[in-house]
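for the writeup, i need someone to sanity check this before i put it in the appendix. the sequnce is what the collaborator sent (i think, or maybe the updated version? ugh). structure was predicted straight from it, no edits. if anything looks off just tell me and ill rerun, i have time this weekend
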Amino acid sequence: MSTVNDSLVIARRNLIRMTRIPEMILFGLIQPVMFVILFTYVFGGSMSIGGSTDPDVYKNFLMAGIFAQTVTFATAGAGAGIADDMHKGLIDRFRSLPMARGAVLTGRTLADLVQTALTLFVLAIVALIIGWRPGYAAPTNFGKIMAGFALLLLLGYAFTWIGALIGLSVRTPEAATSGGLIWLFPVTFISNAFVDSSQMPSWLQPIAEWNPFSATVQACRKLFGDPGVSPSDAWPMQNPVWASLIYSILIVAIFRTLSVRKYRRADG
């Protein structure tokens, strides 16, 4: 119980800090909205989804990818925040207090999860305004839509632990921001998020289909009833909900362990 209570205290501290720096929330909202508008109106008429270049088809295909990209890009902010706390000596102060070792990182990741949920909520409203319609290509219901968003949040939470490890491994917030974005670009673009993976070179398709990011995107497209569900025989594409859950839980288990170990050894 000590770990849970300490984690909630740290999460509350980080949430209060976020409300006192509203530009953090504002900039976090603007970026995904820009991606939605740019991809929808710049690339919309030139992308073929299931043999159709109809902009409305691409718009409904795109949203699951944009949602997933938004929750994973929050990773860079988490890493930068932890690096900033270390740079200012705040982590050293926490380590001197009689509290659970993993609580600082768990609280930080939980606070980031709340911010990600807020961003996702605003982004979903923007998507509905520009024409995203759940059930566009296949029947769906409220429960399935909520399940899709739950998978997205779980993926975002899992990737936040990768950001935590990066934040603990560098000396400055700037390095954490750069390090947190470099690996995210190939992960998000070598996937089925923005294009049909069957249109990629044959050697690249297996990488995209077994990408954890692709599994969550495919699961969301199925749950939302969006067009462009990959017909691939790869197991993550055939069982995307299970694949997304397994990938996310494994990432949390591995990177939480590594992050807490790094935190205990951190020299500030």
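The mean pLDDT is 86. The CA atoms of residues 102 and 260 lie 6 Å apart.
thx in advance!!
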